[in-house]
Structure formats: C-alpha cells, structure tokens
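Subject: Re: docking follow-up (fe (ii) ion)

Dear J.,

Thanks for your patience while I sorted out the input files. As discussed at Tuesday's group meeting, I've set up the holo structure prediction with fe (ii) ion included as the bound ligand rather than trying to dock it afterwards. The sequence and the ligand SMILES I used are pasted below, so you can double-check that they match what you have on your end before we go further.
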Amino acid sequence: MSGHLRAGSATRRRFLMTVASATATTALGTIALPAFSRSSQRPVITHGVQSGDVSTDSGMVWARADRPARMLIEASTSDSFKDVCHASFVDALPETDFTAKALLENLPAGQDIFYRLHFQDLLSGQAISEPAVGQLRTAPADRRSISFVWSGDTAGQGWGIDPARGGMRTYATMLRNRPDFFVHCGDSIYADCTIPAQQKLPNGETWRNIVTEEKSTVATTLAGYRGNYKYNLLDANLREFNAKVPIFAQWDNHEVMEDWWPGETFDRRGYDIKNTLLLAALGSRAFHEFMPLRFTPSEPGRVYRKISYGPLLDLFMLDMRSYRGPNKAPHEIQYGPDAYLLGPAQLAWFKRELKRSTAIWKVIASDTPLGTIAASSPNVGTTAGRGVEIAELLAFMQHAGIRNTVWITADLHYTAAHFFDPNKAIFQDFEPFWEFVSGPIHAGTWTPCALDRTFGPSVVFQSAPSREQGDNLAPCFGLQFFGHMAIDGVTATLTVRLKDVADRVLWSTSIEPKFDQTAHRRS
Ligand SMILES: [Fe+2]
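The structure tokens for the complex came back this morning:
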C-alpha cells in the first residue's frame, strides 16, 4: 500500500508525528528520542537508494528494508531539508521482498531534488532506521543544456564484484560525468549466469568474486531473480551512482534467460522449468520490484514507455523481448505473430507517440541493436521475419516526417557507431539515421559481430577486443564502455561521445537537428 500526503494537510501532520514519535534524526520538527535506540532493533536499509523515471514534476524513489517496515519519504530542494516539498509513505512487506518504491510528485522542474528515506518497523511502530539520502534532477520545462549517459550489461559472464579490482568501476566513471540521468539499455542482471568464486585470467592472474547463494545457480525462482539484483547492489560504486543519478531502466533478455521468447519450451541444464512464460513472469516481477520504474496500471509488467524530458528531448524506451515471435529463420515476409518484434500494440503506441512528439530530439533506446535483428529474406528486395516490423516503422517515420531520431543500445558487449543508409540497404524507404552502441558496464567484452545488411548499416567506429584477446574479455582489461549524449540548450546540437571505463573519449560526433516545416503536413 502507499499514501501520498499533501503538505499542510491533517494527514501530513500525522505523518510528521509518526516520524517524530520515534526518532530524533529527521529535520521535520521537535522530535522525541526513539523508544528503541539499540542498533540491532532498528530496521536497516539493505541496498542503498535509487531514483528513476523522472519527469518535469515527479520521479520514482526506491529502497529495501530488512523486515516489514514503512518507508517514510521526504523530499526537498535543499540538502538541509529545511523546506520539505513532498512527504509520503509506502509499506515494504514480504510480498515484495521488502522493496518499496513511490512517486515523488509536485516537484519543481529542472531542479536538484534531495530525498530522505527512513524505514519504520511495522511490528513495534517504534524502531526507525538510520536515514538514507539520495538526489535526482527533474526534467527541465525550459530549453536548457542537458546530458545523459547510457550503457547496459551488468555483471555478466561470471564477472562479478572483485573488491581488489575496484568493483564495478564503470559506474564510478559515469558518476564523474555528472549526467542528468542514466539509461540502462538492458541486461541489468544475468539471471542465467552464475557468479563463481574465481575465474582464471589469460595473464595468469585470478579474478576473485564476492559470492552469494542466489548467484551460485541460475535463477528459476522469484528468490533467485531477486538475488541477482541484490548481488549487483552489493557494489559500492553502483550504490553511490544510484543515490545520485536517476535511472531509466529497460530490460533485454538476461533479466529472464538468454535469448528467450514468450511461450518458448526448452530443455536447458540447471532449469527444472521448461517454459519461458513462468520464468518471464518471475523475472518481470523481480525487475519491477528492484528497478525504480513507474507502474503502468493497464499492464503492470510493461517496460516500454516514453519519457518527456523537456523541449529538447523525448526518450522512447522500447521492449523487444516481451512481445516477440519465435526465434526462427526469417522466412515470413508478411506481418504476423511469427514476425513480431515490438508486437502490434507497442508498434501502434510508438508510432502514435512519435507523431505526437514535439521535442526536437527523439532518442530511441532499444534493447536489441537493429543491425543484429535478422531481417532479410533470400529474395533480394524484401524484408522478412522481424525486419518486416522495423521496415514498417522506418517507412512510417519517413512518411510522417519524424525527424531527428537517434537510436541507442548496448547488448553487443563492445562500443560502436553505426550509420544506416538507404543507399546501401535492401529496404530503402527511410531517412538515414545513427545507432550508437555502448556497453558492457561490467561484463565480458566480445569481438565485433557481423551486421545484417537489410537496412544498410556501416560501421563508422568500433572498439572491441582484438582477435588475439578473443571473446569474453574480463572487465579488468579496460574495454568497458558507456555513451554520453549532450544537447546544447541554445543550438540544440546533439553531441555523442563513446567513452570507456577510464573516461577516455574514444570517438565523438556532433549532429545538427533538422527543422523540416513541411514534413509534418505530408502525413
Ligand atoms: Fe548482455
């Protein structure tokens, strides 16, 4: 359950009294000492705090307790919490593994917001946790310079937290960039990869992981899926990043299982479940419990959504996993269930929202790179399989005059800039566009893969292991990547930088927006 308390209301006064009756640590007023002050009796915030899905006037916050507890939430525009602009609560119960998340509302636009969370023990009503403080920045309502980072692929291929090697260092590097927000393009966990105590490195050294019971087997239960998120949150870099930067979380395949599709039956080692529907339900539940996504009442498991980030940027978060058709050779040239990628409902939503968008830039976050979605039929000149839907989408964008679209993704486990050009493509009814690939954050790095040529991609830049270094290169060899995007408030120029764990700019480009006044009338 949750409650939102308006400042000045009788309910809010009760909230303040609830906090005040048990702790001396909040800044909400004159406060009595807690009835239980011994630390062993106080609830504990187990995995730091997170925020996400910020808009111009709101944002989600998240934390987890160690017992049934009420999360008491305050927000303010100053870190002194002198003027509290939001107060609410949500109860963390075993049904959500004691995770709690709530929407901060009525926030000012384009502001740094500080939030402070306490957990109140629901059994005693008296014991209250130490506070945890986080911050987020709301989206601007006016035209000002903005920047964000994106990446994907966290703790894959058995590369977990090795404290002697600094843990998941890319999160610390991303934090140094002080982005307005972070887009996680998916593979936020690797539910189908275990984390062993150690792995041998090609240079003779040993990688030593922190280990947990849940990460000693592949996830097939809700506890197992939850354990994957809890493992990542053991990393101090990640927790510090979460406390300071709001996340827009997307999912790819490893939040459930390698390359799954809905309804697939399978027989894999380590799995007593043989159908992906149950695994996907469990994985989805844990994803929504542990990631600070907003809740969509009409479809509680929905991941796809649009983020309006002021006049310069609309961000489209796609879900190419939950509605896709079977994995099979792309023979189908008609659009039907076998060719689904986004699926008809999401595709219709996406077209509608693209057309409605008034933001100058439309950044499309995709869990799967377009150049790796098998798309060609043997008959030259036609698209097939999942390419049918992409072709329809790109043609729609062309005919409806949707300009200034850029695609971002992770998934390949190396970084690249791909330029899609109709003059080099089999399917040609689209405007040229960029796709920028960055990742992994903390996983094995792979040698480059071949791109499907249906939509005419060129590899303008890539950084990946050499053939000698081979696949699944450990994170300690420096080939961990994230991307940085900045939009200038005056010129609206979009600057893209592909960066590595050492914060080096490996490649960058600046793109001027197009303003085509006649284009919208053609639709
Ligand atoms: Fe991945």
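A couple of observations from a first look. Residues 153, 156, 187, 254, 411, 413 surround fe (ii) ion (CB under 6 Å). The radius of gyration is 23 Å.

Let me know if you'd like me to rerun anything.

Best regards,
T.
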